[in-house]
Design a protein that fits this description.
Layout lengths: L3 H11 L6 H8 L7 H12 L13 H21 L3 E6 L6 E7 L15
Antiparallel strand pairs: 1-2
């Protein structure tokens, strides 16, 4: 299990730019429930980069381990801090997985999610 400091460090290494949820977590260090799905989606895009990049690359075992640990950290934060229930769904055409808040998000002001990815 990752510590908060290690999760911040990994978020800094893996974020997708200044606009991303992981970037904000790496800087601020506070879990924001309204970004629950965004944290997981950003991690999944890295783990499944063959679906999203023009020139996909293979992740080393260490890189996969870092991303999976970061995913587990945020899943635990979601479970312990919210009533949000996240399910991973498979895109019906392309086959990649994406997170979906199936319940519990309605009570969170400003909750951010991803529409079914195209």
């Amino acid at each position: 299990m990752l510590t908060k400091a290690k999760a911040q460090e990994l978020s800094a290494s893996w974020h997708s730019g200044e606009w991303s949820a992981l970037y904000h977590y790496s800087i601020q260090g506070d879990f924001q429930p309204q970004k629950s799905v965004r944290y997981l989606w950003e991690i999944l895009q890295k783990l499944q980069n063959q679906y999203f990049l023009a020139c996909p690359y293979s992740l080393s075992n260490e890189q996969q381990s870092q991303l999976k640990s970061l995913q587990e950290f945020f899943e635990n934060e979601i479970r312990s801090c919210t009533y949000i229930n996240i399910e991973y769904k498979k895109h019906p055409i392309y086959g990649y997985q994406y997170p979906d808040a199936v319940s519990g998000a309605g009570d969170i002001v400003g909750f951010e999610t991803v529409k079914e990815p195209v």
